[in-house]
Structures are given as C-alpha cells and as structure tokens.
Specification:
- The chain is mostly helical.
- The strands form 2 sheets. It has a two-stranded antiparallel sheet. A two-stranded antiparallel ribbon has the order 3-4.
- Strand 3 and strand 4 form a beta hairpin.
- About 30% of the residues are buried.
- The mean pLDDT is about 95.
Length: about 220
C-alpha cells in the first residue's frame, strides 16, 4: 500500500446516483477515475492489471445502511476482488489507513524476508496502522479457503517476481554504480506507480547505506 493522490472534484455520477433509491457508485466515470488515481493497482495489495477489479469502500456502507459512506468519493477505492473479500471481516470495520491522507510507508514496514511476508506497524499503538498491516499480511498469506490459497499464492508469486527484478538490478548497480541505464531501470522499479512499490521501496530504504544513489527515488 502506497500513498495515493485522489483527483477532485468527485465524479458527477455520484451526486446523481445518491438521489436514487437504487443508485450505483460504480458508474464509468467513477471507475475510470479510481483506476487512474490508483495507477491501475489494487490499493491494498498493489497488484496491477486486475482481472477482478471492484470499487471498494474504505468504511463499509452495510448494504446502504450508511448511505453517506456509499457515495462518498473519499470513501471509494480501486481494489481487487480478493482484497475486497478478505477485508470484508468484522475486525476491519473500524477502519484501516486512508492512503489518500496518510502515507503507509511512514507507518508500516513492508518486507519480504526469507521467502515470507512480514508486514507490521512501526507503532503498535496506532490501531489503524496495525489493522492495515494485518490486512496486507493476510491478502498475501490467507489459507482458510481453496480460492484464497490460490489467490494469496498468486499475489505472493507476483510480488516475488517484482522483488527479484529489483534484486537483479541492484546487483547490476553494484557492478556499475554510475550506469545511467541501470539507474533509469531502478527509478522505474521504485516509482509509486509500479506493482508492489511499498515492498520494493522499503527494501531500498532499509539498505540506503549500500545504495545511497537511490535515496532520491524513494522520498
């Protein structure tokens, strides 16, 4: 999860649909803007090129019980069906981090260590950060149903591929620390727009003494 800049004003359809008895919050203008703002990534797991995208509510509207939440532009996010399903648990109803207003990278450690996900809040007294870290951990490792095993493993495999791209280019950087070609590749890999950016940027942040020339790419 990385910080997202939300576009304003809100899509026009939201105000129109909110007045209807069975209004929709996923009209084309909403979908288009959410996808663009999120760089085509699920805001929770950061997977790109989603096959099962959904318009996700940061705070649940409970089937319309909370109509203000249902059509609130600030409460809508671009997500994948897997993360939406995992997040649909009572323990997350009190809210996770709003990554449009808070920077998850400053509040959570996103790590892949020894082929295992390790996501944790930097301050365990920050309840939203703790819940967010638990959610991200779950979407990569939940195994309570067959489909969730498959979808979690798929995300873990894609994350591993992206991290290996980072590692390979860091090895090239060691050999040629002034290579403009390698630095250009790493700059692209470390952009917030890239898949699983929080994990890649966290790795470089943890190793900034080894790769000082990359610090400018993760601020």
């Amino acid at each position: 999860m990385i910080k997202i800049k939300r576009t304003f004003p809100a899509p026009e359809s939201l105000a129109i649909e909110a007045k209807k008895e069975s209004g929709k919050y996923d009209k084309p203008d909403v979908v288009r803007q959410l996808r663009e703002d999120a760089h085509g990534k699920c805001y929770i797991c950061e997977m790109k090129d989603l096959q099962d995208p959904v318009v996700e509510h940061l705070l649940p509207h409970k089937g319309g019980k909370y109509p203000d939440r249902k059509f609130d532009w600030n409460n809508l996010f671009w997500a994948c069906g897997h993360c939406n399903s995992v997040k649909n648990q009572q323990k997350y109803e009190e809210g996770i981090l709003d990554c449009c207003n808070q920077d998850p990278e400053k509040l959570i450690n996103f790590k892949l260590i020894n082929q295992a996900i390790d996501v944790n809040a930097k301050d365990d007294t920050n309840e939203k950060a703790v819940r967010t870290a638990e959610l991200v951990q779950e979407v990569f490792s939940l195994t309570n149903t067959g489909m969730r095993v498959y979808k979690s493993e798929m995300r873990f495999q894609e994350l591993t591929k992206e991290m290996n791209k980072l590692y390979d280019n860091l090895e090239e950087l060691k050999k040629a620390p002034d290579s403009k070609v390698v630095l250009r590749k790493l700059r692209a890999i470390l952009r917030r727009e890239s898949a699983f950016a929080a994990f890649k940027r966290n790795y470089v942040r943890d190793n900034k003494d080894r790769f000082p020339q990359l610090v400018i790419y993760i601020v």
